[in-house]
Amino acid sequence: MTLPAALSPPSGLPAQEGMAIFDASGRLTECSAEFAQLLGENPQKLLGRAYEELPLSSGSPAPALIRQARETGRAASQNLVVRDTLLRVSAQPLLAREGGAPQVAVTLLALAQEQAPRERMQQLETDLARFRSLFENLPLIFWTVQQDGTPDYINWFWFAFTGLSPGQADGEAWKKVTHPEDLPEFVRRWGHSLATGEPCELECRFRRHDGAWIWHRVRAFPLRDAEGRILSWIGCSTDIQESRNAVERAEEERRKAEQVRAALDTFFDAVPAGMALFDENLRYTRINRPLAEMNGLSVEAHIGHTPRELFPNLSPHPEDLFRQVLTTGETVTFESTGNSQASGEEGTWLACTAPVCAPDGHRLGVVIVILDISHRKRAEAERDRLIAALERSNKELDQFAYVASHDLKAPLRGITNLAQWIGDDLKDIMPDETRGQMRLLTGRVHRMEALINGILDYSRAGRVRDKPESVDVGALLNETIELLSPAPPASIQVETRMPVLHCERVPFQQIFLNLISNALKHAMRPDALVRVRCSETANGWEFAVADNGPGIAPEYHERIWGIFQTLRARDQVEGTGIGLSVVKKIVEARGGSVRVESAEGQGATFFFTWPTSTPKK
Length: 617
Hints:
With 617 residues, the chain is an alpha+beta fold. It has 17 helices and 22 strands.
């Protein structure tokens, strides 16, 4: 057959080179006699056959090579063995004639001038088929490239991973799926390897078919002939994303551990308490400055020594306790009193020692924290002394109040009786002026007696406690109203349902007695109306006693709670000025609070809270 001039081999072409043309459907349309001779076939029998039907070795990559050139429009070549001869197969796409379909020219070049022994070639062919099968079945990316870096084989896993089609397997495809940040270094190293023949190895990210960037370790090695010339390159890419993730996790854990260590170091050095760490042999591995100063030694002097080596005369010795903690694994807290190792002064220390354990529970050593509580102990002793003195003073005050009230009331009763007798004896002849002075005298005596009783009540309020009991507040209010018995048209109304409290009955009733009697007294009108109500709060109850009196100006809302404080002269409203101060003292001693809401001409409402759980004395 005659090839077109453009495809005819040059004059003097060795018989070991042949050419053929395949049409767009992949069927052979023209071939040279040399092409058919290299395949061991008659040229006429080759015409019309598809490239998959060529008499090549089983599993030969030549059909894929021709298909690649036809689909990509790029030249491709590869070595293979045919009929015991090593051939270089090259596929070159041709420009389509006007109105025609694209074609592919295939060249076969015999690389060896003489045939290798059949057995050797068969073994080589078998080895190639075995390695090709291995590459195709491993879930790793393998490829081979020519001396110039042009790919001539890529296994299936590359296409499965990237989502590219075999038609996209050109020399630049790998750049499109390499991460932009990694590509410059990849290009530099691969170019260096092609130029020098040195192996190439790096880590980079390839884009997976789902768009995720996955880290790979890329390795490429040259294959050389007996003279050391590079025949081709073989490479593989291994997915190292999990190992990278593990490294990143380990790095993150290391970073967190360093942060924790730094925080512990800061805490260890800054805490205003003595701290020390001991190993399994109870040797100091770390001690902070406060504890070193307590011991009267430098920090460095402790490290590597046991407490018994440094302080052999201590008794009982703390090392025995440390050994107990190390053996039992139990934390021990204790107080120790003795002389300071540094100053020799007597002091008290609060210590806590605990085991230091590994994650698996193995005890690595012991930690101790020591706080010098000498000042606190001295303060507690002073507090106890003052409390005892205060209790003695309170007891003496109670005794004084009782004696004073008894001794003061006796003359007052005598004055009252004497005034009564004088009035009875002289009632017929006593002038009106004298009669008025006698009434004034009797009133002053009663006021003095009320003042003495008020002082006694105030001294006892908040100090003397009765035994708590169940108190029905509604029933208690009824008793209080009966005791006060306001003269009509004055009245007392209980507006809400009252609770049952567990409290001290007498002081609780005294609060209502004082507030309600004050409301009746200061209403300054015969139709005085006192209203009592309550509401539940988060911590207990709030009670309110409201009146329809003249009200209290805001500037006096704090003053009225003080002892002996009254807003009107005693000649206008009889009172001692103690009642509200007694209420305040009783309520606050039980954890409650008092307040008033009022304005002039609008009456007044007195509130007090009573917690469900009252504080102990």
